[in-house]
Write a structure and sequence with these properties.
469 residues; alpha/beta; 8-stranded parallel beta barrel; 17 strands; globular
Length: 469
């Protein structure tokens, strides 16, 4: 790995690979959810998706042609260890070896994530991340990956979006196991994710591998409405909900004491936090922080008489709901009517890129940061040649990148940028209508032809003009 600025794009295993039962792969919880759950509102599955499993060379060639020098992807745990624990699937190891080797052949730095929402179903049936046993299972899975790929992979992410994964699984309830407003499980899952990440990092260091390892955390800028009556209290409660359990523990190696008091005050059982874990956190701090930057958390005082409520739009243009949450006695989302929103109700606020990077710098110092995701989902209509003029995506992403480059120029230690996503892919419960890719895939054609969009060429030019970030 060099000190060059990394410009690339990102995908996740279940969302792009397909080959859901190929070559000894075990069932993942999303395989079961997409096949069986009535909560799979679009009826779509990742069984084939972009078929990256069979088409990886074509897709990596397209990355290379656009000037990208890095690719962030995740490994399917069930493809490596079909039951989550126990026997290793050599065919899965062989597959990722081929992907990694082809990246390197094309001078593309692989940035590999061990867990991106894609849990082996055997472990999901045992409670998933709520069950502390998963920490041991993840440590052993990570060790297999480090030993198999660590001689060539120099950038590792243990877990993607620890907070958002738990949020969708346990608060919104749109991801399996589809718990709703289960705050006990929300914090338990995040704690076990952080613990598992720290344990995996300790294994990585014990193996004396010469790369770097971190986590990917979703948008973390807490912005308090100026009309808030108790701004300091609201900020602390929101930071503890969104960020501190993950960032303090992963970067500083210690649990945030104010969070423990907050949980106990609101009758959340903290017995899942064990004293002996403190040493694990101290030894398992990250080398870099990945940030998936999409939006800020704009918050204010909660309306006292109103109950906890979650606002989440999975219907796109079919709903006018704005994304947010109200947590009784803690805080609630404040809605800025002057800012634009995407069709799924999420605020588009480019300045959050700059604010997030400086929040990290001001709180945690000069830790290296990669923007591990940033992108824009929208509906798209191709012309008769399959070409998509996605000016909306270009304008949005350019504004975020401008703020990233400004933060870098102003002293933030930004090392790279990954667009979400490399190509169109399965967008979880949103199915295939919600498009993020630089490359259009015609999912109605069984040949899955690829068509570079206008944004593909825009990104190529941007890289050429900003090779050093």
């Amino acid at each position: 790995m060099t000190d060059k600025f990394l410009w690339g794009s990102a995908t996740a295993s279940y969302q792009c690979e397909g080959g859901w039962d190929a070559d000894g792969k075990g069932l993942g919880e999303w395989d079961v959810f997409s096949h069986e759950s009535p909560l799979n509102i679009n009826g779509a599955t990742g069984d084939v998706s972009a078929d990256f499993y069979h088409r990886y060379k074509e897709d990596i060639d397209m990355m290379k042609a656009s000037g990208q020098n890095t690719y962030r992807f995740s490994i399917s745990w069930a493809r490596i260890i079909p039951n989550g624990v126990g026997e290793v699937n050599d065919a899965g190891i062989d597959y990722y070896n081929r992907v990694i080797d082809y990246c390197l052949k094309n001078d593309i730095e692989p940035n590999v994530t061990l867990f991106h929402y894609d849990l082996p179903n055997v472990l999901a049936l045992k409670g998933g991340w709520e069950n502390r046993d998963i920490v041991d299972a993840f440590e052993k899975y990570a060790e297999v990956c480090f030993k198999s790929f660590g001689d060539r992979v120099k950038l590792w992410v243990t877990i993607n979006e620890l907070r958002y994964y738990s949020y969708c699984s346990n608060i919104v309830g749109n991801y399996p196991p589809n718990e709703k407003q289960n705050f006990q499980r929300y914090f338990t899952v995040i704690y076990h994710e952080v613990l598992a990440s720290s344990r995996a990092i300790a294994v990585y260091r014990k193996l004396n591998l010469d790369g770097q390892i971190g986590i990917a955390h979703d948008s973390c800028n807490v912005d308090v409405n100026v009309d808030t009556q108790e701004p300091d209290k609201v900020r602390l409660l929101a930071e503890n909900f969104y960020n501190n359990l993950i960032l303090d523990t992963s970067i500083l190696g210690k649990l945030p004491g104010s969070l423990i008091l907050q949980l106990r005050e609101y009758d959340i059982d903290t017995s899942f936090m064990k004293f002996e874990d403190c040493l694990v956190f101290e030894k398992g701090t990250i080398d870099f922080l990945g940030l998936n930057v999409y939006n800020r958390y704009y918050v204010t005082d909660p309306v006292v008489e109103r109950k906890t409520e979650v606002f989440h739009n999975n219907k796109g243009a079919g709903s006018s709901m704005k994304e947010g949450i109200r947590i009784k006695n803690w805080f609630e989302t404040s809605f800025d009517l002057t800012t634009q929103r995407n069709l799924w109700g999420r605020e588009i606020y480019p300045k959050c890129m700059y604010d997030t990077l400086f929040d990290i710098k001001n709180k945690y110092g000069d830790i290296p940061v990669y923007i591990t995701e940033n992108g824009h989902g929208c509906y798209e209509t191709p012309d008769e040649n399959g070409y998509v003029v996605d000016d909306e995506r270009i304008d949005m992403m350019q504004s975020y990148i401008d703020y990233m480059l400004k933060a870098k120029a102003d002293g933030c230690n930004v090392k790279g940028y990954y667009a979400w996503s490399t190509m169109d892919l399965y967008s979880w419960v949103n199915g295939y209508e919600k498009r993020y890719g630089f490359v259009r895939i015609d999912f109605d054609d069984k040949e899955l032809p690829r068509y570079p969009k206008k944004s593909y060429y825009w990104f190529k030019k941007l890289i050429e003009e900003n090779p050093y970030g």
